[in-house]
Amino acid sequence: MINFHPTSTQLQRFAEGNLPPSEALVVSAHCDMCTQCMAVVKAASEKVAAEALSKVSNDPSLDAILANIVQQPVAERPSISVPSIDTIELDGREFKVPRALRRYVRKTGNWSSLVGKLWQAPVDLGDMGMANFIYMEKGGRVPEHTHKGSEYTLVINGEFSDGIADYDSGDFISLDGEHTHAPMSDADEGCLVFSIVDKPLHFTSGLARLLNPFSHLFFK
Amino acid sequence: MLVGIPLESKEARPSRPIDCAEEMSSYLVEVASDRSKVAFAKIFSYFAPRLRSYALKQMGNEALAMELVQDTMSNVWQKAHLFNAEKGSPSTWIFTIARNIRFDMLRKLQNRKEDVCADDLWPVLCEQTADANETSLEEQVTLEQLGHLFDALPVKQRVVIEAIYIDGKSQQEVADELEIPLGTVKSRTRLALQRLKDMIQEHD
Q: Which SUPFAM superfamilies match (chain A) (predicted)?
């Protein structure tokens, strides 16, 4: 069951089209998994639309635009739609990826083993930064860390805990420098998450502190 | 008695409802099925001035605003068949097209690479074929590889780093244990970290 959702402000700004892209991507993917938030966004979009289109600003040049548009030939509709890849594979297991993230499956690099029972596949989002699919096997743990920037995470499949709360498939988690957490999964099935951070993580304990000088190479 | 404020006063100034949803829906159906220019002209004369008002406010520039209006209405002309009255009103549909185009225009203005497109975030005009250009990713340094680099450190340095970072010992404890001066522990730590950093940069 989904217990963690974007805030109503995040959903409102998402409907307006005013959420920063990386945040919007995770919110969008969450809505793919959460009928409740999908409905909120739909209702918000209707309201925003009514407001946005309530005023009229006429201009003679609009006539030329109309004439121009109706002269356009009918665009060809693609006759064959290439099915987009909607699953991501790790170790023989296939995970269904929410619609919003499907485009990025093709931009996802190979899985690599991190510390312990942790796997990571980087997703190149260009100037939006680096996202990662992260898979925690049962008992897998991300070293305790805090954030210099923001971290948006969506649980795609499975359950994990981080010392702040317990999360389940579909949960949306938004963290910043005020939070220190150490995600780990105790679920037999492990846990697959999609996570975007805009600045390197800052590890706060043990061996992982060794990573700090290099953390920009990993979790970003 | 207090002066009553009607409860609905909060909603007293609703944004002007687009009252002609049904009419506009039927025009969209005509555009989709018959490429009716007459029907499109009706949709255009109703929505284009409204879009212009929205666009001027959002883009703050006449030329960009007109581009937004043109692109939005052009999509309405081309993709009317994707409109589904059961999913929402024509005004919501047309607004969401405009919102998506605005999003992409703003990204473009900031010289952003096309790493995210609005239709992924808000699937309004879903009929795209899959993105064919696969990007091959540069090899990333993994923690595993860091492990290899770590193994490449001189044994004396590695022992110190392991004791401090893996076993969590203090530099003094390490010095006592290895029976070496504290200053030596400090310099080995510093040299090892520097070396790891250099190796990673070479690796990049």
A: RmlC-like cupins
